[in-house]
Amino acid sequence: MRDEGLTLTVQDPANGSVVGQLGNSTVTANVRQQTDGSVQVRFHTSDAQDPTLLDRISRSYDRRMGR
Fold first, then answer.
1. What are the tens digits of pLDDT across the range 11-33?
2. Cβ neighbour number for residue 32 with a 10 Å cutoff
3. Residue 26 host element (H or E)
4. What is the pLDDT of residues 29-65, one digit of tens each?
5. Which of 4, 31, 9 is nearest to 20 (CA)?
6. What's the gap between Cα 17 and its chain centre?
7. Domains identified in the chain, total number
8. Beta strand 25-33 with 39-44: parallel, antiparallel or unpaired?
9. Which of 22, 38, 63, 67 is deepest in the core (most CB within 10 A)?
10. What is the DSSP letter of 44?
């Protein structure tokens, strides 16, 4: 999320959540371990002023994960 210019306002590793701000937009990332041991990461925003923001964050995440 920082790669895309967001300021992290909440980092809660115990609950697997991160919240970031970019202008008037708030983005939440949730990390959950699945029963098969894999990890699921979801990004959510309810007020993004930039319709491409979540896509850019997702691509940045994929790059960092080597995908």
1. 999 999 999 999 989 999 999 99
2. 12
3. strand 25-33
4. 999 999 999 999 999 998 778 889 999 999 999 999 9
5. 9
6. 8
7. 1
8. antiparallel
9. 22
10. E
